[in-house]
Amino acid sequence: MLQGPVLARADVASLTEAEAAAELDQLALAIARADQAYHAEDRPDISDADYDALKRRNRDLERHFPALKRANSPTDRVGSAPAEGFGKVVHSVRMLSLENAFAEDEIAEFDSRIRRYLNLGAEAPLAFTAEPKIDGLSLSLRYEGGHLVQAATRGDGEIGENVTANARTIADIPHHLTDAPDLLEVRGEVYMAHADFAALNAGATRTGGKSFANPRNAAAGSLRQLDPAITAARPLCFFAYAWGAVSAPLADSQMGAIARLGALGFRVNPLTALCDGPAELLEHYRQIEAQRATLGYDIDGVVYKVNDLDLQRRLGFRSATPRWAIAHKFPAERAWTRLVAIDIQVGRTGALSPVARLDPVTVGGVVVSNATLHNEDYIAGRTATGEPIRDGRDIRPGDWVEVYRAGDVIPKIRDLDPARRAPDAQPYIFPDHCPECGSEAIREPGDAIRRCTGGMICPAQAVEKLKHFVSRGAFDIEGLGARQIEMFFVDPDLAIREPADIFTLAARDGANLAKLKNRDGFGEKSVGNLFQAIEETRRISLSRLLFALGIRHLGESGSALLAQHYGSWDRLVGAISRARIGEGPEWEELLSIDGVGTVMATSIVTTFHQPAERASIDRLVTQLDIQDAVRPATEGSPVAGKTVVFTGTLEKMTRAEAKARAEALGAKVAGSVSARTDLVVAGPGAGSKAKQAAALGIETIDEDGWLALIGGA
Ligand code: IVH
Fold first, then answer.
1. Separation of CA 188 and ligand 1 centre (Å)
2. Which CATH number fits the domain that encloses residue 656?
């Protein structure tokens, strides 16, 4: 309930600009809360007169200080009408995810991998921070001149959603900072505390509204509201733990940077500790795990980060995760239930995946009724190489099974209870034909998965490919989800059979929307919205497009690597079209990308050379406006665009580090010297490559020369 003093205000003319700004923030929040209570929850919590007074005060302040009028001013808002949709934000520094570890020995391995990369001996000091991994959703807050100017979700890491108006309603997020760098992007986690989550769900149950499965979903659902008034009414919290672009360093250590964020007014996690190596990290992990149940919010592990920011910079990133951090996840949660049936799903690559249909059971707070059974060997109780699993016990429909899940991962079956098996339970026979199209389903030697051979004629594969195409990490088309894809796939007039068909839908429907409007669930407004959403996604980043194609073995990180390497669609498609599996410069180029192996490379080349697939891709591409990859900042880099070869022994850094830094500066690192080489960096013991360089007249420098060349870059 709003208190009286909110309404007892000083004369507008006597206020300074800073006071007015602070009051406008407060008013926006108060009005948003009142709107939400009135319009969305049907339980107004202030009188009409008080509400009008708030709006009047807001309008008066805006008239007197027009520069302070916010884009989403309550003055311009009638009730709580939703905004149009989220704008897109290109992150100036990518928002990454973290590599996961589950076992303790992976932490020792993390430490030694870093030492190897940095060429640090086993005895050299190497400190880490350890802090809870908050189970919410990440958010990037951009401050310019100390003012919060933008808040964006992670999205695909490169492009997120603009949720500024919503973030402003979160009490933990300061609107103004004093003594902050001129540009500062603060990153952290939005989450909902257990008590607030329980109250929200209880309220939803009372009013017949939708409840959330867990606090993380509730936090995400609350932040990603088109109407900030709804976000304002949801009790969201924020912990800061990282940063993006900054105009001046926050500190020289992770611990120092976190302390600085705390001093600037952000909440930082009090369980953050400095540890001097794996033993201390594990000790702190156990301490945090012991407090997990009493923290009042969900955490799903402990994050370890190299403390020295200079070392973090040297370690840099793989495609989607930093080398200097790891998430040590808590063990999975488990529960027993009955396996009702085993169904086979056919995926977009033709894989026949067995799915366990379960009597619903709660595992770690989430109701689970499906779980993966991996493949036919797993059901039979053996590995692909014939080793027994579960002591060789097979899984049969009707069995009592133990289900487990860790974080977001699809639930899995861990074991079964032989004592509770029905005497007439029959072993499960895995199908050798596709249950969807009847084509033969075969297992290639060495492949654990049986696959439908139907290719493009298999409707299940085609539909799954389309569902993947419109999914969140791919084109993410609002209003075109899995359900609509299934509907359009079989539509007699407006069929969507391949991705290109999505972009011709509006034209095929004609300007009057006559056909689609009468479809199940589509009205004039939703048709318009759908066409607009489709139009908006014609402009797509190269890495998202590659991921969306659903090429086997090419996931989000592989797509990001290809996009970074080739830069543009034309360059990529040219090179892959010319590539031959196992030979030639284009093949070598593909394999030279750190993170691309022969399996991925073979799959990519095969796909682009398969005539029907290629024709379908070409039809799609003519519909799109493909954005070149956001290149690493190489402005002013002396080696951008140059081809560099390292040879001999490097003494100040490892080969991996040298390669990664050169690439970060826009250079291409090649394994052999040729006429196309621009520069050779030769350490002691350099042999034939240095000679070859001399013979070709290519500039050759030593390691110190290289370091001098790239300077502090
Ligand atoms: S650091 C460059 N620290 O976990 C690394 N992330 O699985 C940036 N998360 O996307 C992340 N608590 O949303 C970091 N203390 C913490 C975290 C944390 C939760 C989330 C974050 C990230 C995800 C990766």
1. 7
2. 3.40.50.10190
Cβ(117) – ligand 1 distance below 6 Å: no
The Cα–Cα gap between 144 and 141 comes to 10
Same domain, 37 and 158: no
CATH number of domain containing 16: 1.10.287.610
Query: Which one-letter DSSP state was computed for residue 457?
Result: G
Q: What was the pLDDT predicted at 599?
A: 92
Indicate which residues carry an active-site annotation: 133
Is 436 inside any structural domain?
Answer: no
Q: Which pLDDT belongs to residue 36? A: 62
Residues 6+ apart with CB under 8 A from 340: 357, 358, 359, 397, 398
Output the CA 169–ligand 1 centroid distance in Å: 22
Q: Out of 241, 318, 323, give the residue to mutate to test ligand 1, the one with the largest number of ligand atoms within 8 Å of its CB.
A: 241
Whether the CB of 134 sits within 6 Å of ligand 1? yes
Mean pLDDT of the chain, nearest integer? 89
pLDDT of residue 514: 67
Average pLDDT over residues 683-697: 88
pLDDT for 4: 35
Q: Is 133 in the pocket of ligand 1 (CB under 6 A)?
A: yes
d(CA 704, CA 681): 9
Q: Give the confidence band of 446 by pLDDT, cuts at 50, 70, 90.
A: confident
The model scores a pTM over 0.85: no
Q: Is the CB of 303 under 6 A from ligand 1?
A: yes
User: How many domains does the chain contain in total?
Assistant: 6
Please give the pLDDT value at position 8: 59
User: pLDDT tens-digit profile of 398-422?
Assistant: 999 999 987 666 899 999 999 999 9
**Domain interval for residue 363:** 334-420
The pairing of beta strand 668-670 with beta strand 643-647: parallel
Q: Could you tell me whether strands 668-670 and 625-627 are parallel, antiparallel, or unpaired per DSSP bridges?
A: unpaired
- Residue 229's contacts (CB-CB under 8 Å, 6 or more residues apart) are 32, 33, 35, 36, 39, 40, 80
DSSP letter string over 557-585?
Answer: HHHHHHHHHH-SHHHHHHHHHH-BTTBHH
pLDDT of residue 73: 75
- Does 138 sit in the ligand 1 pocket, CB within 6 Å? yes
Q: Among 93, 137, 299, 303, which is best to mutate for testing ligand 1, by the most ligand atoms less than 8 A from CB?
A: 303
pLDDT, residue 80, reads 39
